[in-house]
Amino acid sequence: MSKERVRMSELGNLASEGYVSVVDAPPLGMVTLRCRDDAALAAALEGVGLTRPAPRGRSVTERGEVLWMSPDELLLLLPPEELARTIERLGEALDGVPALLVDVSDARVVFRLIGAGAGEVLAKISPALPLLQGEVRRSRIGQIAAAFWQSGDAEMTVICFRSVAGYARDLLCYAARRGSQIEPV
Prior knowledge:
This is Sarcosine oxidase subunit gamma. This protein has helices at residues 38-47, 83-93, 118-125, 165-175; strands spanning 5-8, 14-17, 21-24, 29-35, 58-61, 64-70, 73-78, 99-103, 108-114, 136-141, 144-152, 155-161.
């Protein structure tokens, strides 16, 4: 049995390096934004340097990322230092428009799967793969709700509730352990 190299991550959680590395992402500002007025929403996002993604997609700008979660829900991923100001500016732009802006940064945790087999690791624990390029999936990993997408050539990003972060980390690390690669038949 091969030994896994285990280290402490930036957030103090164990991270492992199997055939795919599972690491905690740096802290992110996260905002749930719900709005059914497409024109007002697009204008508000543009005003803070973000763009609305296509259904089931993501858009990335210099200011942050926007993930499509449902027809009237987006998840904004922002630098933590920009969070309060962005929420304030979006609130001003959507004043008078039925909308919901909620800081969910403390309620979520983000993991990165890094390595050529990152998609395979998720395929072992989620019914929702394969992903199309640029697609965001809102599904489950194991027994918990999660969202995930391909964030690089050999990288996947997973977001889940912080309350189940230990389970998610253990599940991802177990699926990524050395020797567990799926062999072609």
